[in-house]
Amino acid sequence: xxxxxxxxxxxxxxxxxxxxxxxxxxxxxxxxxxxxxxxxxxxxxxxxxxxxxxxxxxxxxxxxxxxxxxxxxxxxxxxxxxxxxxxxxxxxxxxxxx
Length: 98
Prior knowledge:
78% helix
């Protein structure tokens, strides 16, 4: 595949994702975020593979490093948001009157 074809796939995939995410009801955002974290984990593995296989000073090394940074940011942020949401559902300790 040439670079133009890959760019078109990226553009159309981004527009399709934006359209689909915009139509998700609020009750499904948590499972959707869990799926996005899983996909970002796979992206991190692919980026690490690209970085390992890349030659020094190649564009693949730069693109792999950037994608690893974005995927890592998404995974860590997703864990913080999930932890905060789960804290909202935990029971608060009650004080017993003596």
